[in-house]
Write a structure and sequence with these properties.
The chain has 26 helices and 19 strands. The protein is an alpha+beta fold.
């Protein structure tokens, strides 16, 4: 009988498999082996796509004459730093005594791609290859994955989609980055007062840059509009409250041009005149016109997927999506949580049948033990499969991100924010086994001098699942994000919240007793000035959600419906795309607030793309590419069909850039953007004199050159990193 070879994506994961397999292993160079088994690993990617000059030396120098570059067959090569481990893996894959290969790379498109490239370069033939697909690193899950491993061929469509995604990013990165750099790089560098400027673009990266720039320009062009609202101030049994006027049907100001909206005057003097009119008859009184009382339920939110977790961690801990992913990947490898790179926010039917194991494990996690015990005692977990939290149709590769209830011995190695991230996942998970929060809502309509005033109050009657979620930061043992809030401040904040809750409850009890027709004494009418607000800037978390929900950015209703479940990028790549934009100095990320803003260079690149390959900025196009890759993975579109569309798009727009000559027309656009970066603008040809140097040392070397290059080359020469900066 031959041996079984297990190949993992990382050494740490290989160690988990070796431990689970339970055989006495001897250590080799880059692998472990027992009498029946061999365990080895990749180092992430061992193989990558070859640069253009490998096809022909003429491609080494950047030239419009050699574009578009679209190979009929793609070439691959072993990554230089990984050659030693690749040699080990190749030898093991082809060993005569290895009868079966278990592929244990991460269970997703990228993990599939990593192994497929290795087997391709190692020329593996005649082996029984099986795919291990797991949702966590626990021993039970690993054993299940091995036992249920399917033939590798069952994942051929997923592999095709992985190859096409890489080829797409490669083609767009090479052709568009080279074409735009050759067309605009020299004039941009001259404008910035630098030697060179590389225009690095990509399928997803450039679309995200466009979202940041567009939002910034919307904020700049926003015109603040003041308006004036009228409030009636009254009280009942010593409890003061207010109601807001609206120009509803029957109002003397219904559809009046004096109003900004239904409830606000454009000018203060008109608001003052209205208040004088209301105050003519003394005593000032209002009658209860309606008093509606109803109970509202608020259910626990769906479970975390990676995007939701990244958004919450940006808000709670002020960390970037990339940092969140690093933390949760570490938690996964320590068996504490399930597979992190998931888009699903629900459980599978299969896991829901044994979910009590996850809950029971949390009895040993002190901060959550009481909540876990209550969840078990109440027994809602027994019927969780009948709720919205379980839906197989919403799951593609993996179910939601949840705690395993295992690996708790590793908690002592967690510190600060990483511990907080784990607690957030635990609390979100346990909350779905709790009842909804129940509110008592009271909606009042008051009538004063024939005008209607409205007020609505909501009082928490039963906190339900909120018991698990509230005071999350304190329960996590994490420090406040500001870093300067001491214990006394936190205690005062908690006391204020408690006092407000008590006041709201007292007011609710008073308002409950109001009856239609009851008269209330009006203390005064108050004018409150309001102002329209500009759109909010994206922060790193809200951008991740915007990328995930790209369909919402699409104006065409039919198209939006078609790709509503498709985002820009994937859960595995979105954080890296943001990181790349920051490293390229196209956008700036505030470490304190996580707010994203464009740089001058980023705005210049946005304008260049807008005036050349505008579709790269379109969320509809970017999301449709991802949708197409999903169709390939599902077998609905053949790789040949996708390739034909992809090659045609790249060829069309590369040739367009080659034929356009609008460099000088870009100068006014650069000037308009530069005005917001505290630097004088340039008049005349972008390639001529009149150089400017932006404040804050916005240099092409730092901003235009892709990350990882300490020194660059002139725009006409090869810059290998930007070639594949397809993102």
């Amino acid at each position: 009988m031959g041996k079984y070879l297990f190949i993992a994506e990382k050494p740490s994961v290989a160690q988990q498999f070796a431990a689970t397999l339970g055989e006495s292993m001897s250590k080799g160079d880059g692998y472990q082996e027992s009498e029946h088994l061999v365990v080895t690993w990749c180092l992430g990617h061992l193989v990558t796509m070859s640069y253009p000059e490998v096809y022909d030396q003429k491609y080494k120098k950047w030239s419009l004459d050699t574009l578009p570059f679209i190979p009929s067959t793609y070439k691959y090569e072993v990554i230089g730093s990984a050659r030693k481990q690749f040699a080990v893996v190749k030898k093991l894959l082809n060993r005569p005594d290895v009868e079966r290969i278990y592929v244990c790379t991460d269970s997703g498109r990228e993990g599939e791609y990593i192994y497929r490239l290795v087997r391709q370069m190692a020329d593996v033939k005649g082996k029984d290859e099986r795919r291990v697909w797991i949702d966590s690193q626990t021993e039970e899950e690993i054993r299940r994955g091995i036992h249920e491993a399917k033939p590798l061929s069952a994942y051929d469509n997923l592999a095709s989609s992985a190859y096409l995604r890489a080829q797409e990013d490669y083609l767009m990165g090479i052709n568009f980055s080279r074409a735009l750099t050759l067309r605009y790089g020299r004039s941009m560098a001259s404008y910035l007062g630098e030697k060179y400027c590389v225009v690095s673009v990509g399928r997803v990266m450039t679309c995200v840059l466009g979202m940041v720039v567009k939002r910034e320009r919307e904020i700049r062009s926003f015109q603040e509009t003041p308006f004036y609202r009228i409030f009636l101030l009254t009280e009942k049994n010593g409890c003061p409250f207010s109601a807001e006027w609206r120009a509803v049907k029957g109002s003397r100001y219904e559809n009046s041009p004096l109003l900004y909206a239904q409830n606000g005057f454009k000018k203060r003097e008109d608001a003052e005149a209205f208040v004088r009119d209301l105050s003519k008859n003394l005593p000032l009184q209002a009658a209860v016109d309606k008093c509606e009382k109803k109970t509202e339920k608020k259910n626990p939110p769906l479970l975390y997927n990676l995007a939701e977790l990244q958004n919450d961690c940006s808000r709670m801990f002020h960390i970037s999506p990339d940092q969140t992913l690093n933390y949760v990947q570490d938690l996964y490898e320590k068996k504490l949580v399930t597979y992190p790179r998931t888009d699903a926010r629900v459980l599978s039917t299969a896991i829901s049948k044994e979910i009590d194991r996850n809950i029971k494990g949390l009895l040993n996690f002190q901060p959550a033990a009481a909540y876990a015990k209550k969840a078990l005692d109440d027994g809602k977990w027994r019927t969780i499969a009948k709720t919205k939290y379980v839906d197989d149709k919403q799951i593609t590769d993996h179910y939601a991100l949840i705690p395993t209830g295992q690996g708790l011995g590793a908690l002592k190695s967690l510190k600060g924010t990483e511990y907080g991230v784990y607690c957030a996942i635990v609390r979100r998970f346990l909350s779905i086994f709790y009842p909804p929060a129940i509110y008592r809502k009271i909606s009042l309509t008051l009538d004063a001098e024939g005008e209607k005033f409205f007020s609505s109050y909501r009082v928490l009657e039963d906190e339900g699942y909120l018991a698990v979620m509230k005071k999350q930061k304190d329960a996590q043992g994490d420090q406040p994000a500001s870093g300067n809030e001491d214990a006394a401040d936190r205690e005062a904040t908690v006391q204020e919240a408690s006092d407000k809750e008590a006041a709201d409850r007292a007011l609710g009890e008073v308002l409950e007793k109001l009856r239609k027709g009851e008269k209330l004494l009006v203390r005064e009418y108050e004018i409150r000035e309001g102002k329209t607000s500009p759109p909010k800037r994206y922060n790193s978390g809200s951008m991740i959600l915007a990328m995930e929900n790209a369909g919402q950015l699409i104006e065409d209703e039919e198209l939006r419906e078609q790709i509503r479940s498709t985002g820009i990028g994937t859960s595995a790549t979105r954080a890296e795309i943001l990181k790349k934009l920051v490293n390229n100095r196209y956008i700036a990320l505030s470490s304190k607030t996580q707010i994203l803003t464009p740089t001058l260079l980023g705005e210049m690149i946005y304008d260049v793309v807008r005036c050349s390959i505008r579709s790269l900025l379109d969320p509809a196009l970017t999301a449709s590419w991802e949708k197409g890759l999903g169709y390939v993975a599902d077998g609905k579109v053949t790789p040949e069909q996708y390739t034909e569309t992809m090659d045609g798009y790249v060829s069309k727009w590369t040739n367009y850039v080659k034929g356009v000559h609008n460099e000088t027309q870009m100068v006014p656009m650069y000037n308009e953007a530069a005005a917001f970066y505290k630097a004088r603008t340039v008049t005349g040809h972008a390639g001529g004199s009149g150089k400017r140097r932006p404040s804050g040392k916005t240099k092409a070397k730092a901003a235009g050159n892709p990350p990882g290059k300490a020194s660059g080359r002139a725009a006409g020469q090869s810059n290998r990193k930007s070639d594949q900066d397809g993102g």
